[in-house]
Write a structure and sequence with these properties.
Order of helices and strands: HHHHHHHHHHH
Distance between the termini: 87 Å
Helix content: over 70%
CATH topology of the domain at 166-270: Receptor-associated Protein
CATH class of the domain at 166-270: Mainly Alpha
């Protein structure tokens, strides 16, 4: 007598076995090793006072935060393997002028991805209830929604970077002119930077204040300006830092260098504006050719066609 196996029982058994395999793999992956035990004793201690350290942001639900923190950390490390490395994310956050840490950005990516998965699941359930459940397309829809949430978070950061860089490029000629006037009046470069940072308002003035803080901490002014150029990633600021460094080393007139750089930035902005205008002209032809022109032709031909039809 042959034994009969129920398909439902086979599916339940397969899912149970897969769950056991995942649990065992998870425990083995989180197993404490000798290196992790020795790391707290060998890691250099931070001598900074606890009052000056960056305090973690606590949510209104600390118990839930403690329960979900390990899972969010694992998901953040998994996203780090898929996306940009940690150093690149830190550089992009600096370029965007954001004060959040890399871990906070990874947690935000996890939240956006989870929201995308939830939206995809809701859409899949609605489509399945209306047209019937097809597992493969609906699962693909959920995964695509999660990937869209992940990409949307990264795209928002990219948009913030581009907007901030546009504002800094627009502010640079004015800042350079103010620095040139201050240096021409007889002030030292650091004093001129302090005056401009105290007077101006904008993204570039914030970067100048950060540069002055590095100079007060003991960094040379040329190195501090180079670090500012590296943080922003703008070619104009890179040329500005190099020009100021060369002027300070060789004793060349700094005011002329700053005025020349401001003029170069204005010329590059004018060229960019002309290129944007040329692209807009091409875009404006699309509704004219595909919408207005056909309607004009129809209005011109339709009365003649109607007259011919009446005559026939």
């Amino acid at each position: 007598m042959s034994a009969w196996v129920s398909p439902d029982g086979a599916v339940i058994g397969a899912l149970g076995g897969l769950g056991l395999v995942l649990v065992v793999a998870w425990f083995r992956a989180r197993r404490v090793t000798l290196a992790s035990r020795l790391a707290p004793a060998l890691r250099p201690r931070d001598a900074t006072s606890g009052l000056l350290r960056e305090q973690p942001v606590r949510s209104p639900f600390p118990v839930v935060e403690r329960l979900l923190a390990p899972w969010l950390a694992d998901l953040a490390h998994w996203f780090e393997r898929l996306g940009s490395p940690r150093a690149e994310v830190r550089r992009r956050l600096d370029r965007a002028g954001s004060t959040e840490s890399v871990d906070q950005f990874r947690a935000r990516q996890v939240v956006w991805t989870g929201a995308g998965l939830v939206v995809g699941l809701v859409l899949a359930l609605l489509i399945g209830a209306a047209r019937g459940f097809a597992p493969v397309p609906l699962a693909a829809l959920v995964l695509i929604s999660g990937a869209c949430g992940f990409a949307a978070c990264d795209q928002v950061l990219t948009r913030q970077i581009s907007q901030r860089e546009e504002r800094m490029v627009a502010e640079f000629p004015t800042i350079a002119e103010l620095l040139a006037l201050a240096v021409t009046a007889g002030e030292a470069p650091i004093s001129a930077l302090e005056r401009v940072a105290a007077t101006a308002r904008g993204e570039l003035s914030v970067e100048i204040r950060r540069t002055l803080a590095d100079v007060r901490a003991g960094a040379p002014i040329a190195l501090a300006l180079t670090d500012m150029a590296d943080r922003t990633g703008l070619p104009s600021l890179t040329r500005f830092a190099e020009g100021v460094a060369v002027a300070l080393e060789r004793g060349t007139p700094l005011a002329e260098v700053l005025r020349a750089q401001a003029q170069d930035v204005r010329e590059s902005g004018r060229r960019a504006l002309m290129e944007a205008g040329g692209r807009k002209e091409v875009v404006m032809l699309v509704p004219v050719v595909f919408l207005i022109l056909p309607i004009t032709v129809v209005f011109a031909i339709y009365p003649s066609l109607a007259t011919l039809r009446v005559g026939l």
